[in-house]
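Q: My labmate handed me this sequence with no annotations at all. I'd like to see what the chain might look like in three dimensions before we decide whether it's worth expressing. Could you predict it?
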Amino acid sequence: MRVEIEVDLRPAPPGPAAEAKPTVDPAARAEQRRRDREERMLRRLALAQVIEASITIGRFNDMADLAQLCGVSRARVSQVIARADSQ
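A: Here is what I predict for the chain of 87 residues:
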């Protein structure tokens, strides 16, 4: 049995994959990161306010009950509240 294979070893012509990636404006990237950080901070602040309100109205006895329900540690709940208070 005889098998013949023809292989072209020349480099492939430039196509869509070889085109240069679009450049991203550094100022636009910095602005997007700033907005993302601001949104995360606002979400944490809102979460902390909901946690504190829930404990205040008696929905949860303490942070440990809340942490158990949420599936996180009590330390993490305390950390979220402390971070929001410092903001």
